[in-house]
Amino acid sequence: MLATYLPVLLILLMTITFATANLVITRLLGPSRAGGSVKSMTYESGMNPVGTARKRFNVRFYLIAVVFLVFDVEIIFLYPWATTFANLEPGSQDSAIWLGRIMFFLATTVVAYLYGWRKGVFKFD
Amino acid sequence: MPDLSHFITAQLIVSAVICIVVVHVILIGVAYSIYLERKVSAYIQDRIGPNRVGFDFGLPALRFLRGMVGLGQPLADGLKFFLKEDYTPAHVDKVLFTLAPALIVIPALMGFIIIPWGGTWNVPEFTIPVLNVHVAGGPVQVAGAVVNVGVLYLLAVASLGVYGVTLGGWASNNKFSFLGGLRSTAQMLAYEIPLGLSLLAVLLVVGSLIPADLVGYQVRNGWLILSQPIAAILFFISILAEANRAPFDNAEAEQELVGGYHTEYSSMRFALFFMGEYAHMITSSAFFALVFLGGYHLPLVPWLSPESTTLLAVLAKCLVYFGKVGLLVCFMMVIRWTLPRMRFDQVMMMAWQAVIPLALIVVIVSSVVVYLNLGPRFNLPWGESIPLLVANAAITVGFLIMYPFLPNYEVNRRVPMYGSRFNPVPGERVSTRPMDATALADRPEAAVAGAR
After folding, report:
1. What is the pLDDT of residue B183?
2. Bridge-partner residues for B123, per DSSP?
3. Chain B interface, mutation test: which of A29, A39, A41, A44, most B Cβ atoms within 10 Å?
4. Smallest CA–CA distance from B108 into chain A, residue
5. A50 within a domain of the structure (yes/no)
6. Are both A77 and A123 inside the same structural domain?
7. Could you tell me if residue A109 is inside a domain?
């Protein structure tokens, strides 16, 4: 069973080799001329950079990340449900229970989603 | 000598060969899709595009290889990238700065191994000469890896690409890179949800995560783009956004952010970002073809069915699959050179307020349709798809009816400006009369008509 994942290991090794080889070969082949303070400066369209880029940024990105987590974890739960639900006998009692449970589960997420919408998480301006 | 015959199966050998071959095909495909992109953009903009570089390498002996409609361009570009200076600016986080390009190209190249390029191949039994291992024949899957969570694996690996973008933006210590990385991360996170949900609407119908089962279902019941068109459109939008393709390429919006997260990169490191994007395009096109376009299947062609397992059929299936992928890649390119880039707030609002709710509705409606199971009542060859198609039509009609009642923010506010003719500040009187003496001499009537 685990042998079916051997090609994944193979491709992982191949891609890592490819990426590393590219990075090493370009370092070896390319010139490395001495750079002054201007060359090593951050490129900001030709102007001298003011301050650092390690700045505080909009909290909206944090909110997006949190809401993404909620939805992504939910989708992870939905995948096993979907594959099993499609294989249940349609219209049977089992099937109805499975459908009802997942509808309740989705309803909780919809409530969270509407709350987020009301709070303006999804509003960009 | 340990007995390897239990370990080495025909499936393992075919998988390894497919892995090695397809990696190279994809890499060449990446190089030539960059060439194709330049040609497509050239034809769309009424130019010629690359047409000079052949394979003569400047040697008189290879004169006959000159020209070749510019087919040598990708090779020349690749060599040029190798020979450029690999410069690390002073302010960057050196480890992450080096790691980021690798982290973007590795997931992009890893995803496609679960794609069932050629269906099933009935391998004859044979013996490996040097090792003297007898390999039993039998049906094998012509795919890089035959794993039973194939679709999930592809989703998981594809979403790893966000690390490269984030780290590239962060490590560069450049405000443009940082903003580009942030935008790109937020966008990729946001569109991963509709990607997963629209796929879920399909998996609900198929009931399996195995790629070969997806193709098998579509051979029996018709392509899923016909029975789940809304999910297909949402999926396509999401893969465009995941690959940072136009009209969602905010990460590298040149007019706003210079180069976005790869502003500070040079030489092959920059090229790895580029290759990552194109490899991602090819992998997502293959994914789309697998899920919605029936994989290697073409209707009305009998030897492209899962039953034909000869080597010739397998090769034909691979060709058909690559053809579909090529067409999808071309379609993505035409989209890029036709549509203008969306603004970042529009992209994000579209994800959270339009695409995700719509995908959720599609999932809920499809699960109800699967529960009702009305397909067998239609005694037709592709009868399974009729209830789903009706459900999709119902969603569309419902959306059109609900459209006036949906919340609609005015995203394109007009800001009043002093001195503007089109949107003046209230109370300000703007004269459109030409003030220039030459202009007045040209059109004397404008002096009267232009007054407001």
Report:
1. 86
2. B138
3. A29
4. A15
5. no
6. yes
7. yes
- Reading the block at residue A99, the tokens are 């459908």
Q: Residue B189 and residue A64: Cβ atoms within 8 Å?
A: yes
By mean pLDDT, which of A19-33, A86-100, B250-264, B337-351 is the weakest?
Answer: B250-264
A76 with A22, same domain: the answer is: no
pLDDT for B194 equals: 92
Q: Do B190 and A64 count as a contact with CB atoms less than 8 A apart? A: yes
Residue at A48 is within a domain: no
Q: Inform me whether the pLDDT recorded for B235 exceeds 90.
A: yes
Q: Domain containing A82: what range?
A: 58-125
Q: Is A104's pLDDT higher than 60?
A: yes
Give the DSSP H or E segment for A96: helix A93-118
Q: Which residue has the higher pLDDT, B273 or B308?
A: B273
What's the confidence (pLDDT) of residue B436?
65
CA distance B171 to B104: 14
Structural domains of chain B, count: 1
Q: Residues A75, A118: one domain?
A: yes
Name the residue facing A53 among B173, B204, B267 (closest C-beta). B173
Please check whether residue A116 lies inside any domain of the structure: yes
Amino acid present at B18: I
Q: Is residue B452 pLDDT above 50, yes or no? A: no
Nearest residue, CB atoms, B206 vs list A4, A35, A86: A86
Within a domain: B420: no
- Count chain A–chain B contacts defined by CB atoms under 8 A: 222
Report the C-alpha gap between B392 and B410 in whole angstroms.
Answer: 28
Same domain for A7 and A62, yes or no, is no
Nearest C-alpha of chain B: how many angstroms from A105?
11
The model carries a pTM of 0.87
Number of domains in chain A: 2
How much is the average pLDDT of B252-257?
Answer: 68
Predicted confidence (pLDDT) per residue in B312-341, tens digit: 888 888 888 999 999 999 999 999 888 888
Q: What is the pLDDT of residues B42-60, one digit of tens each?
A: 999 888 888 888 787 777 7
Residue B283 forms part of a structural domain: yes
ipTM for this prediction: 0.90
Q: In this complex, do A18 and B258 lie within 8 Å of one another by their Cβ atoms?
A: no
